[in-house]
Design brief:
The complex is a heterodimer of chains A (499) and B (147). Chain A is mainly alpha-helical and 499 residues long. Helix content of chain A is 74%, strand content 1%. The radius of gyration of chain A is 22 Å and the shape is globular. The longest helix of chain B is centred in the middle third of the chain and has 27 residues. The chains are: A mainly alpha (499), B mainly alpha (147).
């Protein structure tokens, strides 16, 4: 209740601070721009803005990063609807029904419905930040080294399973590669230099930002530059608003909106599983419970609503474990976690003690960014779509420069740029061979947490492994992990036998 | 076949980490359970085992037959990829050795003009303006030094 009352107070604080509001406004607008441009992901947008916010006070910087994150996830729907290309991976499910609606002459209606649904999804998400985060925070205080060690591996495996549903083995390999590579640098207990080979630059380990920009940005730039085919654009606004009613759309879809919002939040909470999975799961649930399932894929408003509500609600869900466990729910949330550290905010179970205002503040920032997003979305959507006319061949070299510059300014050394390119190469190789990037990045982030807690747990128990299965939370996580891994293969084998 | 090659590459990488971990001290001031190599041994062993499963499994993947058109497209795409990689690497190599604004303007204009052979004057103007914009935002507005 305390967090809920302070939440409204923080909203008033933000509204009455014109400078903060202005910074949030341009960051949200920048996020929408990032989302609109195919190839630029929310992760990249948050990463690039992190480098730009070094000089800002922590509160302003975090508010701006939340703005760019929400804006980018929403902005991706614009491209998904008019271009049939998801602006960010989170909007892949939006294309299925958004593009057919746009092609039928209702582009304006589809764009506005997506705006409203994204707004509603974000508001549902903000309410969950206020209510769920303090509860999860209290639970996290009960965690010991055993639980944190298992949680790190659990998160990586779940992310691997969900981001590579066709071949989870590749997801797990990507995750454990991330965990393994994260061991480079001074270890946190004995300060022994691991895999540094006397190179002082490696003593501090490999920074998260070059890895993120490399793994997500470089493969996208290379893929876009090498592509020779061009996409079809459905900028058909010929049919007016009269034929379809926004009020009826919300009235008929209220259950779908709430369900998709809640599903989005809870998928967001799962470590490493991002907005793309949330929108697909919600889309599937909406189709199963729809009275008109045959319309799905041919321009169903229910389908469009489910996908767009879920992906924005998921943003909030992904932030909840960042704040309470220091475990990111999605890739952009991982950059947000890094940005919190850079700005001196230590996320995790101690956050409510060290920064008691933070949870309510983040929820308030989230709400204001959502309002800004809806306002911008409804007013200047069509103007933004003109950006789509900029050829990829011109855009991608500029994005490459931003990736290089953004990585360089982190520590002012070329070493990070080379690391970024090295991980870019690895990311490209992984993408060509169908290895998902998300579990790799999550493994890289959680690696130090797994390492420190696993050894601390061993030291406390004098090498006894039993506490891992005698402590209830640790046992539950271990059982869930094993069940997830087994469940991925049992139906596959049955299916194979039937074939 | 692609999976098997990938599995071998990742196994070799994990083997490198595993061997490296065995060269780390096994006893520390925190006792043997504080040894820095424990967790890298666990993770690299898991990576090796998972890749071994990928290497040994039998998965028949239907490879769609390629038409001449497909082969031409793939060849064109590979050519574009190679050119992009060379120019991007060249740009990073030269960073810090040449003036940032001049080098970046040339880089953006060159890469754009190679693939988008229209409106060269406009592209050059855009390249210079965008580069100056980046320089101004980072170096002047946020006081972050550029290479």
């Amino acid at each position: 209740m305390n967090v809920l009352s302070s939440y409204f107070g923080y909203i008033v604080d933000i509204i009455t601070d014109p400078l903060l509001l202005f910074n949030m406004a341009w960051a949200t607008l920048l996020g929408i721009l990032v989302g609109v441009l195919p190839g630029l992901t929310a992760t990249l947008g948050v990463a690039i803005l992190t480098t730009l916010t070094f000089g800002f006070p922590a509160k302003t910087a975090i508010a701006m990063l939340i703005g760019v994150y929400i804006g980018a996830i929403y902005g991706g729907s614009r491209t998904a609807i008019v271009l049939n290309i998801p602006g960010t991976p989170a909007n892949a499910a939006t294309t299925v029904d958004g593009f057919p609606i746009a092609r039928s002459g209702h582009a304006g209606f589809a764009l506005n419905v997506a705006t409203m649904m994204s707004g509603l999804g974000s508001i549902i998400g903000a309410l969950f930040i206020v209510t769920l985060a303090p509860l999860l925070g209290k639970l996290a205080l009960q965690f010991g080294s055993w639980e944190f060690a298992v949680l790190a591996i659990f998160g990586t495996i779940i992310a691997g399973s969900l981001t590579a549903p066709k071949d989870p083995l590749k997801g797990w390999i990507a995750g454990f590669l991330g965990l393994m590579i994260s061991q480079i640098g001074l270890d946190e207990i004995t300060s022994y230099p691991r895999y540094t080979f006397g190179n002082i630059q490696l003593y501090g380990g490999i920074a998260l930002l070059p890895v993120l920009v490399g793994v997500y940005g470089i493969p996208e730039i290379l893929m876009s530059l090498k592509r020779t085919t061009k996409a079809e654009v459905a900028l058909d606004f010929s049919k007016g608003k009269k034929e379809l009613s926004y009020r009826k759309t919300i009235g008929k879809n209220w259950l779908n909106i709430i369900r998709s919002g809640v599903v989005g939040v809870f998928i967001g909470v799962i470590p490493g599983v991002g907005e793309d999975v949330a929108s697909w799961v919600s889309y599937d649930l909406a189709k199963r419970s729809s009275k008109e399932p045959e319309k799905f894929g041919n321009g169903s408003i229910e389908g469009l609503s489910a996908a767009e509500t879920a992906n924005n609600a998921c943003v909030a869900g992904a932030i909840i474990p960042v704040l309470t466990l220091a475990v990111p729910g999605s890739a952009p949330a991982a950059v947000l976690l890094a940005a919190l550290w850079i700005h001196g905010v230590r996320a995790g179970p101690l956050l409510p003690i060290e920064h008691p205002e933070m949870i309510g503040n983040v929820a308030a920032m989230f709400t204001i960014a959502t309002l800004l997003m809806v306002i911008f979305g409804l007013i200047i959507t069509r103007l933004f779509l003109k950006i789509l006319l900029v050829p990829t061949e011109i855009l991608m070299p500029i994005i490459f420069v931003l990736c290089v510059v953004g990585t360089y300014v982190l520590n002012g050394r070329m070493f990070d740029v080379w690391i970024m390119l090295l991980f870019g190469l690895l990311g490209y190789f992984m993408r060509l061979n169908d290895f998902p990037a998300a579990p790799f990045v999550l493994g890289f982030i959680l690696g130090p947490m797994a390492d420190t807690n696993m050894r601390r747990a061993l030291m406390l128990a004098k090498g006894d492994l039993l506490p891992f299965i005698t402590r209830p939370v640790s046992l539950v996580l271990l059982i869930a992990m094993v069940l997830v891994m087994i469940s991925k293969y049992i139906p596959r084998k049955r299916g194979a036998k039937n074939e | 076949m692609k999976d098997k090659i990938t599995a071998v590459v990742f196994m070799l990488l994990a083997l490198f980490f595993l061997i490296g971990a065995f060269f780390m001290p096994f006893t520390t001031e925190y006792g043997k359970y504080g040894a820095p190599g424990i967790v890298p041994i666990v993770f690299s062993t898991i990576v090796i085992l998972l890749n071994l499963v990928m290497f040994l499994r039998k998965r028949e993947k239907k490879v769609p037959s390629q038409t001449d058109q497909d082969r031409q497209r793939i060849s064109a795409e590979n050519k574009r990829l190679l050119i992009s990689v060379i120019i991007c690497l060249g740009y990073v190599f030269l960073l810090g050795h040449l003036n940032f604004i001049i080098l970046t303007s040339i880089f953006v204009a060159t890469l754009s003009l190679i693939f988008y052979r229209k409106k060269p004057v406009l592209i050059i103007v855009v390249s210079v303006l965008v580069t100056y914009g980046i320089y101004y935002i980072f170096e002047k507005l946020f006081l972050l030094p550029l290479p």
